[in-house]
Amino acid sequence: MAADAQGVPRVILLFGGTSETAPLADMLAGAGYEVLVSIATPIELAIGRHSRVRRRIGRLDAAGMVDLIQTEQVRAVVDAAHPYAEQLHAIVARACQTARVRLLRYRRPSVPVPDRKGIQWAVDHATAAALACRPGSRVLLTIGSRNIAPYVRAAVENQADVFARVLPESDSLDACRMVGLSLAQVIGMRGPFSREDNLNLLHQLRIDVLVTKESGIAGGFKEKIEAALERKCRVVIIQRPVESGAAECRSFEEIVEALQD
Predict the structure, then answer these.
(1) Strand, helix or coil for residue 12
(2) Do residue 104 and residue 73 come from a single domain?
(3) Which among 33-47, 65-79, 246-260 has the top mean pLDDT?
(4) Helices (H) and strands (E) in the chain, counts
(5) For position 64, which CATH number holds?
(6) How far apart are CA 62 and CA 94, in angstroms?
């Protein structure tokens, strides 16, 4: 186990699950830390190639995180989970406070959004569903699989058609089925998606409303917006949650520098 000159373990617990996990883990390992990457489910995810990077799989509550932090003698926690993973961010913050370890949160850079007619912002999924699912609309959801129910309800009420692009994982597909989407309404695909990929899907499904999260460059947000504008779709964007309670870093280099302070 990597340790400093005083023999104190240099273990970083990294909560990942996105395309940024591997490069961040490798950078931390290259800076001399042992990196334990924690992901909730056994998805296909690169975690880095450095010999000091390893992974664990499985969901954790706050108590489980505290136990893991203590067992692994974690020096600091880096929360680089998806920007919209509100529940996980809150649990990680609570666990770090209980275990009295340092917490750094990676804030994925935002992408400027054109000031165009037809682009609307929503504070939550209920608001987004009301904006998107107008009578006769054909709506493509690119928001993951956890918050589809409000859109299905709004679509039924307003006689709109809803489609969801989700990861081709059993959990995601089951979530879609549980809220009433048929197989024809679910597109199981794994990104990254180019502008052309998005445009082809919008055209194939005759979509006129795209619902997305402001997930930054790593989340393919720019390519989705470009495709929707070319297709002349309305776009409904769910705002990022307000983050608090942790030191925020806007680059991998900033995280490494903060850990070395």
Answers:
(1) strand
(2) yes
(3) 65-79
(4) 9, 12
(5) 3.40.50.720
(6) 7
Average pLDDT of the residues of the chain: 91
* pLDDT (mean) for 161-175: 95
Q: In what order do the strands lie in the sheet with 234-238?
A: 119-122, 234-238, 209-213, 138-142, 161-166, 186-188
Domain containing 176 equals 119-238
Report the DSSP pairing between strands 11-15 and 209-213: unpaired
- Number of separate domains in the chain: 2
* Exposed / middle / buried, residue 115 (Cβ in 10 Å: 0-12, 13-18, 19+): exposed
Model confidence at 147: pLDDT above 80: yes
pLDDT band at 155 (very low <50, low <70, confident <90, very high): very high
This prediction has a pTM of 0.82
Residue 143 lies in a domain: yes
Same domain (yes/no): 150, 250? no
Residue 226's nearest CA partner among 72, 64, 103, 111 is 111
Query: In angstroms, rounded to a whole number, what is the distance separating the alpha carbons of residues 207 and 141?
Result: 10
